[in-house]
Automatic annotation (TrEMBL):
Native source organism of the sequence: Caenispirillum bisanense
UniProt domain Pirin C-terminal: residue ranges: 183-287
InterPro entries, sorted: Pirin, Pirin_C_dom, Pirin_N_dom, RmlC-like_jellyroll, RmlC_Cupin_sf
Family (UniProt): Belongs to the pirin family.
Cofactor note: Binds 1 Fe cation per subunit.
A GO term for molecular function: metal ion binding
Ranges where the Pirin N-terminal domain occurs: 28-127
UniProt xrefs under SUPFAM superfamilies: RmlC-like cupins (SSF51182)
Keywords: Iron, Metal-binding
Protein name, UniProt field: Pirin
PANTHER family per record: PIRIN (PTHR13903:SF8), PIRIN-RELATED (PTHR13903)
Amino-acid positions noted as binding Fe cation in the UniProt annotation, renumbered to this chain: H65, H67, H109, E111
Domain of life of the native organism: Bacteria
Length: 287
């Protein structure tokens, strides 16, 4: 099998282990971005992974809570999650679906799992908004699995495109100043993919099944399920599965905003004063 080389493959800058965490009404999860070892990767603020076949670990879900100043992108590999918010949006994502919510100037929402056959497996990404858009109107969209772009760019490589573009396949996510690139890449045993991570974007890779070697063939680094690899600067990335086993990985990248980041719980602004205003506005019912 011959795979055309990218002009240059990014390499792994560092590898970060996930941190056990709990959020919402006691939902147990793994925090990969937004933890002490990796507070953020501008403009990628947080990545949580939920993977449990024990309903007691997640069924209480995430009751109503506020957000301001950023976006949440929820990708559900398996399971069901219902969204409701105080701006009249309601939706249900199921296996392979995506919820994209732009909190903007303020929103209060709930995310509640609905059990079918037990397993809840998915990710939530927090994506920053630039200062000029932090107070924009909230926005919400459900994207069912059938609406996601799919392609097979090489033998043994199957790709789901959530945001950004890969060859002629473009994800259905909204256009944003951060130009997000979010793909789910499945590799058969021995398969190799040249992933078109946009040049200049901050990027990471999270293998969530198997292990994968990232980077040029002569200097690649093997990364295992459950870890997160922060990539160095550059453009595309080569990913290779072991000859004996396949792999599946989430690849996320965004154009850095290079603006101050001020975080307090569910609010992400640029200054401390803006955070204080966000808390005041929420308490006063102005979301």
């Amino acid at each position: 099998m011959t795979v055309a080389a990218l002009p240059r493959s990014r390499t792994v800058a560092r590898v970060v282990p996930g941190m056990p965490a709990e959020d919402g009404a006691g939902v147990k999860l793994t925090r990969l971005v937004g933890q002490p070892r990796l507070p953020d990767l501008d403009p990628l603020l947080m990545l949580d992974r939920i993977h449990s076949d024990d309903p007691r670990a997640y069924i209480a879900g995430f009751p109503p809570h506020p957000h301001r100043g950023f976006e949440t992108v929820t990708y559900l590999v398996q399971g069901r999650m219902r969204h409701r918010d105080n701006h009249g949006h309601e939706g249900l994502i199921t296996d392979g679906g995506v919820q994209w919510m732009t909190a903007g100037r303020g929103i209060e929402h709930s995310e509640m799992p609905e059990q079918t056959d037990g397993l809840l497996f998915g990710f939530q990404l927090w994506l920053n908004l630039p200062a000029a858009e932090k107070m924009r109107e909230p926005w919400y969209r459900d994207i069912p699995a059938a609406d996601l772009a799919r392609l097979s760019p090489a033998d043994g490589v199957e790709v789901v495109v959530i945001a950004g573009a890969w060859d002629d396949a473009r994800g259905p996510a909204p256009e944003r100043p951060t130009q997000p690139f979010i793909v789910d890449v499945a590799l058969a045993p021995g398969a190799v993919a040249d992933i078109p991570v946009p040049d200049g974007h901050a990027a990471f890779v999270h293998p969530f099944q198997g292990s994968v070697t990232l980077g040029p063939a002569e200097a690649g680094e093997r990364v295992h399920d459950g870890w997160l690899a922060v990539l160095d600067d550059g453009g595309g990335l080569r990913a290779a599965a072991d000859a004996e086993a396949g792999a599946r990985l989430l690849v996320v990248a965004g154009r850095p905003l290079r603006e101050p980041i001020a975080k307090y719980g569910p609010f992400v602004m640029n200054t401390r004063d803006e955070l204080i205003q966000a808390v005041d506005d929420y308490r006063a019912g102005r979301f």
